UniProtKB/TrEMBL annotation, chains A, B:
PANTHER family the record matches: CLASS II AMINOTRANSFERASE/8-AMINO-7-OXONONANOATE SYNTHASE
SUPFAM superfamilies documented for this protein: PLP-dependent transferases
Swiss-Prot/TrEMBL keywords: Aminotransferase, Transferase
UniProt-recorded Gene Ontology molecular function terms: 8-amino-7-oxononanoate synthase activity; pyridoxal phosphate binding; transaminase activity
Record EC number: 2.3.1.47
Annotated Pfam families: Aminotran_1_2
Protein name: 8-amino-7-oxononanoate synthase
Cofactor or coenzyme needed: pyridoxal 5'-phosphate
Domain Aminotransferase class I/classII large: 181-405
Catalytic activity from the UniProt record: 6-carboxyhexanoyl-[ACP] + L-alanine + H(+) = (8S)-8-amino-7-oxononanoate + holo-[ACP] + CO2
Signal peptide range: none
Length: 413, 413
């Protein structure tokens, strides 16, 4: 590196593309060379995708549509209904100013379903980008516009990229720290040292496992800890009304924000933030960056969400949750992994080295199952493996076959 | 502020929520008190929105659907076709790994239409969040994976929020500067001082006006200046095939990225980055953060985009562009503003103080026209005004009436 380059080089406090690419790109390239990246398909169902050019058929073992609602006829019909009613794809202006009644209806129905004030956004990333900096600056909670002073932002080391990505933005407003995964002692030390702290984490982690929720609620109770939790991987599948792992285990309050994607088990698109009161909704509606100036959920997908909400209110939800639970149980029985028994659908088969993960994924793909090789920076170095997700719309035979192949191919481990 | 608060306060180099809220929130509150914020409506067309509770009907004068394609029957039919073909809302997994053929077809068709490699994303914000840091780190251009060293990132002072918002993330990789609007001399000085520089700007600015493109291309030619331009406000309306203001005025090359929303004149949802070569597509597909781990465009909206692309290939595009041009001309004739004659649809009627802008907007709304009061931080302090956009689907009477009301209500200025 020349002197001029050095003089402009950033501090690389929260990211380092150079180091990340040096580690990760060769593995991505290897995955691509093994035909695992940039696969293009036609779809009949989540269990049957087809590569048009070769005719290769395979089951999607990494779809986050845990209840199969992305293929539900009523959800698709909901999208068509909204197009018919609204006669348009969108109003094409900021939802801060004008919202379509279909979107308002979605906010209300999801609000009732999940027991929270619902702020919709184009995606979870959009919501997180808009909300986190205003937690850091101290303006979301308490007196809102007054601000109670900045909050120390503690990010769980394993929290999803979409949150960790915003560290530098938060750091322009307040102190940003990274906490060992689920380390409540670390977190309590920070709470003792600083009067205002926020913790940023997943509810159900995208790579498996959950937040240490009981301990977090104790810290909230004792120190006024703010909790910002992305629970995208448990919405719809946990809770009597599909309110998710976290929401079903706490009371909403002004010191908790739960975000969740509607593009996973919920089966549609966009995301929602669950908020403790209406003032926070109004405040974020005005000031949370991309939530105001970016696109929001397009109207057909709002219609699909209304249809999915109707399913959530019906007995069908419990049936689908039950089918998923049985499939998870069966898989855990056939192939016990670290997260076995936690009732959530994300499973990881650890193989250690990235190359082995890529090879295993390629072998399974050849046999008709797409599961992802995951490696750094998706998981820590040396902890590469196979990531797969169970769904309600898999049948027993599929799960038995898949587990059998994995066992055979990892017999030496 | 207590000592502890001070000790955790961030440097506020690129943002300052405290100061922004102190200036802006009272005006937003005033706008809300005047019934201009959080309006909820049913829609018949862009010219006829209705507040259900009061029956108040009004024309949307701030829709960015400049060609009216958000209401085009063929675009709506395209969404339904995709649902029928794909039998699902999405594959619900990372598009880095598997893409639906409908999305691939959209990439190809838009690639042909716009003459570029097309990388789709859930929104322009998503694309910008993913791409800008890799320009800053120096990895997008040239040898890609090797990296040519970091680039000084020069953001135009008026560039859209969605880019300015990412300054702290870029600043973790490289030096970030803010340039006076369209100041080519400033930019050339930076190019002389540093070997690698990137400029971040709008093509057609969201608040009116355009980039100083000829001068920028000269600097690119002379110094290898990287150009990152968001041209959301001219896609579809400029260029023979709707390729936009910037793309129609330059040759694609590996030192230029143009992003554009599909959620404005194009009439659908999501965004695209136009890239100079396929290597950049593959590289960003693997590494550009939210483009890989976030949602992409849902399939019904991909279908809508395919239908919009078909319109772009037909003689209808020129007809719609012509209708828009005539409406812009008529408005400029009736009510000349700073940007009169530039052929673009965004107009601003300057009134100076924010309170006056809010009052004017409220008066016009009462008379059946929603145009936005814009004020700090949307525009600089003391430059508040009324923002409005012309569209192809407005008729002459509507424009004459609206201009007449504005003239009457601002006669004293």
């Amino acid at each position: 590196m020349t002197m001029t380059e050095e003089s402009i080089l950033g501090p690389r406090r929260y990211r380092n593309a150079e180091a990340m690419l040096a580690s990760a790109d060769p593995v991505w390239q290897a995955a691509a060379a093994n035909g695992l990246i940039g696969v293009t398909v036609d779809s009949e169902s989540n269990n049957r995708l087809t590569v048009r050019e070769t005719g290769h058929e395979f089951a999607n073992m990494v779809s986050c549509s845990y209840l199969g609602l992305n293929n539900h006829p009523a959800v698709l019909a909901g999208a068509v209904d909204a197009l018919t009613e609204a006669r348009g794809t969108s109003l094409v202006l900021s939802t801060t100013r004008i919202r379509h009644n279909l979107l308002v209806r979605m906010e209300e129905e999801l609000g009732e379903l999940f027991g929270a004030n619902i702020l919709p956004g184009a995606s979870c990333t959009t919501l997180t980008a808009g909300i986190l900096p205003l937690i850091a600056s101290g303006h979301l909670d308490g007196t809102c516009q007054g601000g109670g002073g900045p909050r120390v932002m503690v990010f769980d080391r394993f929290c999803h990229f979409c949150m960790a990505y915003m560290k530098p933005i938060c750091a322009d407003e307040s102190l940003v720290l990274t906490c060992p995964h689920n380390d409540l002692n670390y977190l309590e030390d920070i709470c003792r040292k600083y009067p205002r702290v926020a913790y940023v984490a997943d509810g159900a982690y995208s790579m498996g496992g959950t937040a240490a929720l009981d301990g977090l609620l104790e810290l909230q109770d004792r120190y006024g800890l703010f909790l910002y939790i992305d629970d995208s991987h448990s919405l719809s599948i946990a809770g009597e009304r599909g309110e998710g792992y976290v929401r079903s285990r706490l009371e909403m309050n002004p010191l908790t924000v739960i975000t969740a994607s509607l593009g996973k088990a919920f089966g549609t698109s966009g995301g929602v933030a669950m908020l403790g009161n209406r003032e926070q909704f109004e405040f974020l509606h005005r000031h949370a960056g991309p939530i105001g100036w970016s696109q929001n959920i397009p109207l057909p997908m709002v219609g699909a969400s209304l249809a999915s909400a109707a399913i959530h209110r019906s007995p069908e939800l419990a049936e689908l949750q039950g089918a998923l639970a049985r499939n998870i149980e069966l898989f855990d029985e056939l192939l016990p992994t670290t997260f076995a028994g936690n009732g959530l659908p994300v499973r990881r088969v650890d193989v250690g080295e990235a190359e082995r993960a890529v090879k295993l994924s390629a072998q399974l793909f050849e046999r008709g199952f797409y599961s992802s090789a995951v490696f750094f920076p998706i998981v820590p170095k040396g902890e590469a493996g196979l990531r797969l997700m169970l769904r309600a719309d898999m049948d027993e035979r599929l799960i038995r076959e898949f587990a059998g192949h994995v066992k055979e191919l990892t017999a030496d481990l």
